[in-house]
Design goal:
about 200 residues, mainly alpha, DNA polymerase, domain 1, 2 domains, 3-stranded antiparallel sheet, two-stranded antiparallel sheet
Amino acid sequence: MDTARNLTLLHDYQTYLCVEKGLRPLTCEAYDGDLKTFAEFIEGRHGVLLTAAQQDVAAFLEHLRVHSIDQRSAARKLSCLRGFYKWLLLDRRIHHDPTVNIESPKAWKVLPKSLAEPEVAEMLERAGMAASHPQAQATALRDHAILELLYAGGLRGRIDGRHGGASGRASRSEGGEHACGSWRQKTPAPFQHRRYSL
């Protein structure tokens, strides 16, 4: 009986997502899979989706953690539950959202693939200010030197078949140094002509 009630409710929600929200079929299937996982968990606790409480949602997240479900997937499932119970609330099928005050699992932050030029300039400037402080520690000097080296060396060297080695090289000019990378393009390198004493 509980299973039939849950399936009917999930079918109604799928219709809402596909017809009214206009979501893609694969997205609707993913939501349906996450909600069915929660429905099975609720049925194991002798409950139904309409009567789920905050304790049930918290227990579900703990169940995912115990079964080694990564935090990103758990956060996605919780987000799916939030949307589902928001729909039920707006449709006046429930009077309380069980996902309220449930903290989303902390997922590892993904590093950006690349930084914008202003962000790189700001990073180098901050490191330079820390390194130039009269009471700068050795780690600040080291970090500044490493950042400059990594940024300036972030080039793709071209392999010269005639000599069997990389043709990338650096040349010094009045404005600093230039590194020759692929296609013989010269890229300004932010090296400063100074020595760090540790």
